[in-house]
Design goal:
The protein is α/β, with parallel strands linked by helices and about 240 residues long. Helix content is about 45%, strand content about 15%. Bound molecules: pyridoxine-5'-phosphate.
Length: about 240
């Protein structure tokens, strides 16, 4: 299982004072040195954290891979086609939300998403759809030629009772297996942390996790190198 780091909140911290530091681009380059497998950024329409300058510099400078999270809107699709990230992950976006709140409804938006995928494929950009662990949504993603899905793990992360944790993990496991059978790549993310990853890594069919908040928050206390290496250690030796 690979581990990509979402660095949006470094840009949030920078923007809090309208300053140039901390620079998310410099942060990404350090994260790569410490072993992350990719960098994830969400270029939101409201530009509340990552901006276009960040995306373009990341494209030029990082040596792992760039996963651009984005809404399926014309302005951002144009930027994605121009920047050509290794992956464009389509997420739902609402201005009032604190963070992405759930998966995109592929079934209800199928013709728009089909067109979005065609446009991105035309610019040689592979596409992932951020969706709930729901077999019908996965079938729809495959039907419109998505390359990957990213399974929303927020319900697993928020589960409290042992029974709910087990059920949510099982939903993800079944969804990942189903997606793999259809030939889709399978990523996962949202709310994953140093505790809930220990059980999560047992799901064989997940290619990559995208983690932001937990690792960035830990890096404030222990430094980025330790925060990244601790997460990689959990992925490699979950039972330690
Ligand atoms: N994947 C997607 C699609 C997201 O929107 C986010 C949050 O920006 C993440 C993964 C990472 O979530 P977290 O910050 O909770 O690790």
């Amino acid at each position: 299982m690979r581990f990509s780091l979402n660095i949006d909140h470094i840009a949030t911290l920078r923007n809090a004072r309208g300053e140039v530091t901390p620079d998310p681009v410099a942060f990404a380059l350090m994260a790569e040195q410490f072993g992350v497998d990719g960098i994830v950024v969400h270029l939101r329409e409201d530009r509340r954290h990552i901006n276009e300058r960040d995306v373009r510099l990341l494209r030029e400078l990082i040596t792992t891979k760039l996963d651009l999270e984005m809404a399926a809107v014309e302005e951002i699709i144009d930027i994605a086609c121009d920047v050509q990230p290794e992956l464009a992950t389509i997420v739902p976006e609402r201005r009032q939300e604190l963070t992405t709140e759930g998966g995109i409804n592929v079934i209800d938006n199928i013709s728009h998403l089909r067109k979005t995928i065609e446009t991105l494929h035309g610019a040689e950009v592979p596409v992932s759809l951020f969706i709930e662990p729901d077999l019908n949504q996965i079938d729809a993603a495959a039907e419109i030629n998505a390359d990957f899905i990213e399974i929303h793990t927020g319900h697993y992360a928020n589960a409290v009772s042992e029974e709910d944790i087990y059920d949510e993990l099982e939903r993800v496991r079944v969804a990942a297996k189903h997606a793999k059978k259809l030939g889709l790549g399978v990523n996962a993310g949202h709310g994953l942390n140093y505790i809930n990853m220990k059980e999560f890594v047992a799901i064989d069919d997940i290619d990559e996790v995208s983690i932001g908040h937990a690792v960035l928050a830990r890096s404030i206390f222990v430094g980025l190198e330790k925060a990244v290496k601790e997460m990689k250690e959990i992925i490699r030796y979950p039972n330690k």
